[in-house]
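=== RUN LOG ===
request id: a7f3
mode: sequence -> structure
chains: 1
length: 331
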Amino acid sequence: MAKKEVDGEGVNIPNRIKALPVKRPGPIVAAVIVVLLAAMLIQGLITNPRLDWPTVWKYLFNENVLEGIRYTLELTVISMVVAIILSVILAIMRKSINPVLRGVSWFFIWFFRGTPVYTQLIFWGLFAVLIPKISLGIPFTSVEFWSIDSNVVVTAFNAAWIGLALNEAAYLSEIVRAGFEAVDPGQTEAAKALGMNRTLIMRRIVLPQAMRIIIPPTGNETIGMLKTTSLVTAVPFTLELQFATNAIANRIYKPIPLLLVACFWYLLITSILMVVQSRLEAHFGKGFNARPVGTKGKQPPYDPPYPGKSDGEPKDDVNKINQTTFAGLNA
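=== RESULT ===
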């Protein structure tokens, strides 16, 4: 009689083969190479006198540097909030049945994606030169009801975030439009059959599902915006992080240590933004992600028959992934 062995669930398997794992030296060799290269890099960073680490620690928490971080974060947050609002409006206009709205949206995207952001910031910095006064009155006449000096409204800070937001909105609008088009049109048709209007369908059906597609590239754009704020010197706006560290470097004639200071803060803020992005992706990805099944997983054991298992199969295969499920969103 054939010898029988028993697995963890008590299922008898005749003539079970004990297969030895294949030896894979590649990961070990790669790990050794990476460790050596990392050790060489760290040793070079620590022992290189040209990096001047004492100067780095001295100015890492300098008040001008911290002030620059504050303005950099303000520019990033304000620009992205305005850009996200504009991008949603532009994406809806691109999908509108009104040809005028589609044309306006297309022209906006074409213009702001077709010109460099640095050039746009220069124009916004020269806004007061181009338009000295902002007024409200009857068009094509000299009648004015209200007017104000452009320098009062379009300050250097306002010109910086306006230029960044308008440029970013052109790129984000295409990301939002792609998210809208990824939603099954059948859900919109079902919502219309339930009597929901277009605004409610967009707010309750399309947009929540499109966020799963929109969030990852939007997170990348936010990180990119954080670094793009270094270009606002074209306005000129001279209080953000990069300019603050450059000003100190020019004063003490040590550019490398101050570049390291700027790199440290940019990396720290970018790391925090990446964590926030991953949390948002996990939140809006609920119901779309695959989950392991089986008695050893995080889920409680199911009563037989187990999903995807016949009565004679082992029940401890937790590495198999069930078919991706879709939770759905109620209107």
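=== NOTES ===
The two ends are 63 Å apart (CA to CA).
The mean pLDDT is 82.
=== END ===
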